[in-house]
Amino acid sequence: MVNLKGKDIISLRELKKDEIEYLLSRAADFEKILQKEGYTNILEGKILATLFYEPSTRTRLSFVTAMHRLGGNVIGFSGPEGTSAVKGENLSDTIRTIDNYADVIAIRHPEEGSAKLAAQLSTRPIINCGDGSHAHPTQTLLDLYTIRKEKGKINGQKVALVGDLKYGRTAHTLAYALALFGADMIFVSPESLSMPKDVTTELKDKFEIEIKEYTKLENIVKDADVLYITRIQKERFPDPGEYEKVKGAYKIDLNVLENAKKDLIVLHPLPRVYEIDPELDNTKFAKYFKQAYYGIPVRMAILASVLGK
Ligand code: CP
């Protein structure tokens, strides 16, 4: 029997496969509630704190929406401006303070390891909404949910991860999760933005996966079942000149998808900049806005589960 009450969601590696399955299954139940009643009150009286030190549209607002649709309340901030961080307060003291205000804390912070630090200090469940280039586990859960929902299963799907695989935290976590669920993976990136060695080594050692890496998108489109493209993470480049060299490396349009499988789906964690031509938005390939919608039932499942409801 899976019990996630009080659990911190720092990285997907700390969740067992049956715990991930449990969250995906609960998300499906919450999606039905969203479509029927739109609301339940199982978290009435509970408070979520959203501590976002970096910009976000989907993650923060879908957590806020999820909490409201579960009958709970939300406090928080969407940038350090206006908080005592500008007066020099460190993260540890902020966490010790919010621990007394809220029942669960969702945090996005530029430093790798910040969510883990918060979990060490807090008595409340901590949900990592992105710590630097490290991990974004709730995005991965909604990515898995989307693939299963739109393709029927994850096992055996040929998933191409395309774009900034070096700094893109969603790609790191997703690669691990896809391996866990038995998908086939192809990595496509500029040479300077390839998947970090620690990720590929783990995939080879733990899952005995053969790593296929390419720099050209055209080489892989016809074989893919899922094309998961990511933004080149401008804000993580130490040298802006290096960003300029790769910023438009990949762009998916109808021409690129000419020889794609008819049931290919295109996913993107969003926001997009150059990566997907808007001409794709109204085609059957485009599932990225649906993917963003699935963030709500998935985050409802996470909140309800870590709060023991
Ligand atoms: N996918 C994602 O994390 O989007 P936001 O940065 O808008 O939260």
Number of strands: 9
Low-confidence stretches: none
| CATH architecture annotation name of the largest domain | 3-Layer(aba) Sandwich
Return the structural class: alpha/beta
Bound small molecules, deduplicated: phosphoric acid mono(formamide)ester
Strand order of the largest sheet: 7-6-5-8-9
CATH fold type of the largest domain: Rossmann fold
Oligomerization category of the chains in this entry = single chain
β-strand percent reads: 5-15%
Biggest sheet features = 5 strands, parallel
Topology:
Elements: H1 17-36, E1 47-52, H2 58-69, E2 73-77, H3 91-98, E3 104-109, H4 114-121, E4 126-131, H5 137-151, E5 158-162, H6 169-180, E6 184-188, H7 197-207, E7 213-214, E8 226-229, H8 240-246, E9 265-267, H9 288-306
Parallel strand pairs: 1-2, 1-3, 3-4, 5-6, 5-8, 6-7, 8-9
Helix pairs in contact: 1-5, 1-9, 2-9, 3-4, 5-6, 5-9, 6-7
Phosphoric acid mono(formamide)ester is lined by residues 56-59, 139, 269-271.
Please tell me about this protein's structure:
The longest helix has 20 residues, at 17-36. By secondary structure, the protein is of the alpha/beta class. Helix 1 packs across helix 5 (137-151) and helix 3 crosses helix 4 (114-121). It has two domains: 12-135 and 295-306, Aspartate/ornithine carbamoyltransferase (Rossmann fold, 3-Layer(aba) Sandwich), CATH 3.40.50.1370; 137-292, Rossmann fold, CATH 3.40.50.1370. It has a five-stranded parallel β-sheet with strand order 7-6-5-8-9. It has a four-stranded parallel β-sheet with strand order 2-1-3-4, sandwiched between helices. The chain is built from nine helices and nine strands. The protein has helices at residues 17-36, 58-69, 91-98, 114-121, 137-151, 169-180, 197-207, 240-246, 288-306, and strands spanning 47-52, 73-77, 104-109, 126-131, 158-162, 184-188, 213-214, 226-229, 265-267. It is globular, with a radius of gyration of 19 Å. Phosphoric acid mono(formamide)ester is lined by residues 56-59, 139, 269-271. It catalyses: carbamoyl phosphate + L-aspartate = N-carbamoyl-L-aspartate + phosphate + H(+). Heterooligomer of catalytic and regulatory chains. This is Aspartate carbamoyltransferase.
